[in-house]
Design brief:
Largest sheet: 7 strands, antiparallel
Shape: globular
Strand content: 25-35%
Order of helices and strands: EEHHEHEEHEE
Structural class: alpha+beta
Helix content: 10-25%
């Protein structure tokens, strides 16, 4: 049996700057990462996963490890690069859709 594919690459990053996810560590969700973290890779269907929350705005905003970031301001988020670009574009506010425990949650943020 072969191990699950690690595509897309993990690309783990801790976000910083003036945005609602600042302080969150995120990773691309590949089948290998899903297997490592005990997540069903079929129900997740890609996206960017929050793995840790450090000091920063994300903790105050209620973001949690295990949250799967799906959209920012209506733009699909599939990779960490997509996430960073969407956060940079939302200088005045962000509508962030996350998947948490099988539910989709959209929250509005202004900083």
């Amino acid at each position: 049996m072969e191990p699950p594919p690690a595509t897309p690459a993990r690309d783990e990053q801790t976000l910083s700057g003036r945005n609602p996810l600042s302080g969150a560590t995120v990773v691309n969700l590949s089948p290998a990462v899903a297997d490592e973290l005990g997540i069903d890779p079929f129900s997740a269907d890609g996206g960017v996963l929050v793995t840790k929350i450090g000091a920063g705005i994300a903790a105050q905003a209620g973001i949690r490890p295990g949250d799967l970031i799906r959209e920012i301001n209506g733009r699909k988020v599939r990779l960490v690069g997509d996430l960073r670009a969407a956060l940079a574009d939302g200088a005045s506010g962000w509508a962030i859709t996350i998947q948490r425990g099988g539910q989709m949650i959209t929250a509005q943020f202004r900083l």
